[in-house]
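Schema walkthrough. Field components (list of strings):
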Amino acid sequence: MLLLAFDTATPAVTAALLDTEDGAVLASADQVDARRHGELLLPVVDRVLRTAGVGKEQLGALAVGVGPGPYTGLRVGLATAAALGHALGIPVHGVCTLDGIAHAARQAGLSGPFTVATDARRKEVYWARYDAAAGRAEGPQVDRPGELAERLGGLPAVGAGALLYPEVFRNVPEGMPEHQSAAALAAYAAGELAAGRPLLPPTPLYLRRPDAEVPKNYKTVLPA
Amino acid sequence: MADEPLVLGIETSCDETGVGIVRGTTLLADAVATSVEEHGRFGGVVPEIASRAHLEAMVPTVQRALDQAGIKASDLDGIAVTAGPGLAGALLVGVSAAKAYAYALDKPLYGVNHLASHICVDQLEHGRLPEPTMALLVSGGHSSLLLTSDITSDVRSLGATVDDAAGEAFDKVARVLGLGFPGGPVIDRYAAEGDPAAIAFPRGLSGPRDPAYDFSFSGLKTAVARWIEARRRAGEEVPVRDVAASFQEAVTDVLTRKAVRACLDHGVDHLMIGGGVAANSRLRAMAQERCERAGIELRVPRMKLCTDNGAMVAALGSEMVWRDRAPSAFDLSADSSLPVTETHVPAAGPVLPLSHDELHRMSE
Ligand SMILES: [Zn+2]
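Field assembly_structure (string):
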């Protein structure tokens, strides 16, 4: 089956096409621009399908990163996946974005327990802790890096969130992924599906409640 | 006519997820999901709540529209979407989904202007728009006087609010009166039993030296609040019905007077009124009366088409196909401040996906 994966929960707009029969990545494309996910995603998807010489009607399933990540960009990926899945009549699987980055880290040679952290803006990180057996042991959560120092400070850490706060994440191995790569996301999703483990529903992991200031009680306009 | 363009339109500029399907000027489906109740306790639309709701509602609303119209997505001649103006994050959900539908279905994509769509929707009610047409758009987001000679390519702004939108003034006055959100319908209801001449509230920007077609509702809103507070401070009861009626009279007086004047000044004999405030019964009645007196034909679509909906986007999209306007590219942006003069956002170069033949031609 041909699995198209993409993710817009990190600064990367990334898409990849994977053949689940042999695990081969037929094509992938990435573009890093945190502010233009909406403009970039569909052209990137189109480039991947063209490079692989695959028509969209040949796709068997979609895998999409469900975050956590900055909401506006995150929703570009999820709205695109939902509509593509609907129009093509194929299933849409959700994958925790941090799981994709963790998979890429293991592909790059990282073993043992480690942390993945991405930039949650507002001086916070999205993070998850992975155990030596490759499973997600804790998270995803959103926290101030300072609050994580004692719990996670000693573990190796990967991702842009780890690079952003070196005073907390002191052990950042070289050659590890900074952002999401859809090729790793696709490989992870294919592995989980093959193992018969269910993936996530394609709905965002927001982790924060919406910012919604309740207006204060009506302010008087007459001088007091 | 069966060969008129069959277009699906997606609208997510504010708090309504709208999906409409139109064939030419015939409405086939108008599905709307709204998050208005989630915003109620905040007294206004909360952008993040609206964006989350759009994402959840998108696919079910599209399916509902297809079912209502009794068509298959593959039958469509194009996909239209509101590219702006509106809330950036909310627009982006609709634009992303519309691109994906257009791409997956191999249909042209049309990113269109929300304000032009509000005007074009009248075609679904009263047939093709006369050219030129004057349009008064009034809602919680807009108060504009627009002149169009071709809804797909020529819309000019004659005037707009310099502060609050008309609908916002309704919301704020309703809040001062403790009547809840949204304010439009409830003020209309109370006003029906009040005296519109009870209190002389100010008419903004109505002096001889003021801009002829611009609006201002901020001073009016403050005047109403002051009046109510003075009453409350004096320990008197606030005559809610009279306040509602007098406030509503002030708003509709300015709106209709300026709209009729714009028609007369520009020799235009058709006025259309759109936007959520077009639901206001006093605005409709006053516009009817003043238009009749001035020899202007008034066109107001039915209520459901006046508020934000997908049918209006489909109506303009269908017109784009009909008049052979250039489709948008797949890198189309959501533009929260898209100027009204940009009726649609055509591609700068060739548009993906190219058909097989076109690819062939390009490689030769
Ligand atoms: Zn509107």
